[in-house]
């Protein structure tokens, strides 16, 4: 009980000292507040960016989804790697799709997509860089597409090369603003196509819109743009547990189709959504590894300010220290008093910094598409570090106060 009473008394004295000099305490805390807010905001930004990109990828590609293309890889390819793939890898054809659909037993479904990019001029309006995507009917299920109006292309339209299309939100807003686009006509390469559906807005990333797109039945695409392009094959599994098995089945099936021997490299590129998500995690992890330590510098600066103010406080309170020693306070009690005071000062700064970061995170989340996610890890880390910095910053001033001679201290009033 005596020990508890000692700590409570010391804590009370520390609070009294802080509130006795409110302005000075606040100015001292600014460094800690900025430091903690910086650490929490950087952590929230990194987590939010990770969530944002992963969400965009899931909207763009769906889940449990892999792609096989003539040239595909996660991350950047060097010029040498690209040239090697360009020489080695074959075009993927319709027979490859049929073979994969037949031999990937774990795949829930296998589809095809092929892309081109053109400028569309229609009814006196121009839309530049529109992605034209020839697809099989099951690509809506593979990429988990959602539609605000109408539907996706159906198997019979793919089979008969029907002159229909599904448009993205940007195309709808450009050519059919304020009206229902379904059953309207859109011309591509002067050929009339009946709009059968409008895809829900998917947003953009790094300035690249995912809604500036028109989907055509694969056979219709071939009639308009030719059939010489390499296909991109897409596979999807129902369960996440089956996904690795399906990817391996797809690889083995295509290697068998292309008559590759055991030591020969794949002559196709295979990418899955999980690899892209892992790439995002590595990227944001690298940013965190650089940015977070830099933000801790501001906390260190705040600690130095706390140390300076505590040294000033020791000088101002020399008589008080001498008086406490004269009435029986030990060196350890004086030492404890100033360490608690500096730690408390920094902890208050940590809490205020956390509140500041929360407010700024709310503003950024509402002003940008990136969801600012404050995780408990960064909260505990920033507050704990600020408290430790305050404790460390208070050791030297506390030691200086504890070793004061009470007789000399009492004469300095």
Give the C-alpha Rg. Answer: 33 Å
Terminus-to-terminus distance: 34 Å
Domain tally: 2
Order of helices and strands: HHEHHEEHEHEHEEEEEHEHEHHHHH
Shape: elongated
Number of helices: 14
Q: Structural class of the helix and strand makeup? A: alpha+beta
pLDDT < 50 stretches: none
Tell how many strands the DSSP assignment holds: 12
Helix percent reads 55-70%
The main sheet comes to: 10 strands, mixed
Average pLDDT rating: 79
Sheet-strand content, in percent, reads 15-25%
Written account of the structure:
This protein is α+β, with helices and mostly antiparallel strands and 413 residues long. The protein folds into two domains: 2-56 and 278-411, no CATH class; 65-272, no CATH class. The chain is 58% helix and 17% strand. The chain contains 14 helices and twelve strands. Strands 1, 2, 3, 4, 5, 6, 7, 10, 11 and 12 form a ten-stranded mixed sheet that branches. A two-stranded antiparallel sheet has the order 8-9. Strand 2 (109-122) and strand 3 (125-135) form a beta hairpin. Helix 1 crosses helix 12 (331-367), helix 2 (22-61) runs antiparallel to helix 13 (376-402) and helix 10 (273-316) crosses helix 12. The two termini are 34 Å apart. The mean pLDDT is 79.
Which helices and strands, and how do they pair?
Layout: H1 2-20, H2 22-61, E1 65-69, H3 79-88, H4 94-103, E2 109-122, E3 125-135, H5 139-142, E4 147-150, H6 155-159, E5 164-167, H7 169-175, E6 185-188, E7 191-199, E8 204-205, E9 208-209, E10 213-217, H8 218-225, E11 232-236, H9 243-257, E12 269-272, H10 273-316, H11 318-326, H12 331-367, H13 376-402, H14 406-411
Parallel strand pairs: 3-10, 5-7
Antiparallel strand pairs: 1-11, 1-12, 2-3, 2-11, 4-7, 5-10, 6-7, 8-9
Helix pairs in contact: 1-12, 2-10, 2-12, 2-13, 4-9, 10-12, 10-13, 12-13
């Amino acid at each position: 009980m005596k020990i508890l009473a000692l700590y409570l008394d010391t804590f009370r004295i520390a609070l009294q000292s802080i509130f006795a000099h409110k302005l000075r305490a606040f100015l001292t805390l600014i460094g800690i507040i900025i430091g903690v807010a910086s650490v929490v905001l950087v952590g929230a930004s990194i987590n939010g960016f990770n969530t944002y990109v992963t969400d965009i990828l899931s909207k763009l590609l769906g889940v449990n989804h892999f792609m096989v293309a003539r040239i595909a890889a996660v991350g950047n390819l060097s010029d040498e790697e690209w040239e090697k793939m360009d020489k080695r890898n074959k075009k993927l054809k319709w027979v490859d799709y049929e073979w994969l659909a037949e031999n990937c037993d774990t795949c829930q479904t296998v589809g095809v997509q092929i892309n081109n990019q053109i400028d569309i001029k229609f009814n006196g309006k121009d839309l530049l860089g529109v992605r034209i995507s020839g697809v099989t009917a099951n690509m809506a299920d593979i990429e988990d597409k959602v539609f605000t109006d109408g539907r996706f292309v159906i198997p019979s339209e793919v089979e008969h090369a029907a002159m229909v299309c599904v448009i993205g939100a940007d195309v709808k807003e450009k050519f059919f603003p304020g009206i229902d686009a379904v059953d309207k006509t859109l011309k591509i390469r002067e050929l009339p196509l009946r709009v059968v559906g409008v895809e829900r807005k998917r947003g953009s990333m790094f300035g690249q819109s995912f809604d500036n797109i028109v989907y055509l039945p694969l056979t219709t695409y071939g009639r308009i743009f030719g059939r010489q392009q390499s296909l991109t094959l897409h596979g999807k599994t129902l369960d996440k547990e089956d996904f690795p098995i399906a990817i391996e089945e797809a690889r083995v099936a295509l290697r068998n189709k292309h008559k590759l021997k055991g030591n020969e490299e794949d002559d196709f590129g295979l990418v899955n959504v999980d690899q892209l998500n892992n790439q995002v995690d590595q990227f944001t992890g690298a940013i965190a590894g650089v940015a977070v330590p830099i933000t801790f510098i501001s906390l260190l600066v705040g600690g130095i300010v706390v140390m300076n103010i505590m040294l000033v406080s020791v000088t101002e309170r020399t008589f008080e220290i001498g008086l406490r020693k004269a009435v029986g306070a030990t060196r350890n009690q004086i030492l404890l008093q100033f360490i608690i005071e500096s730690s408390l000062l920094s902890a208050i700064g940590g809490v205020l910094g956390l509140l500041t970061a929360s407010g700024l995170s709310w503003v950024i989340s509402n002003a940008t598409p990136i969801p600012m996610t404050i995780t408990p890890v960064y909260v505990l880390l920033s507050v704990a570090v600020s408290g430790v910095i305050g404790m460390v910053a208070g050791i030297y001033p506390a030691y200086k106060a504890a070793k004061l001679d009470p007789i000399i201290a009492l004469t300095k009033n």
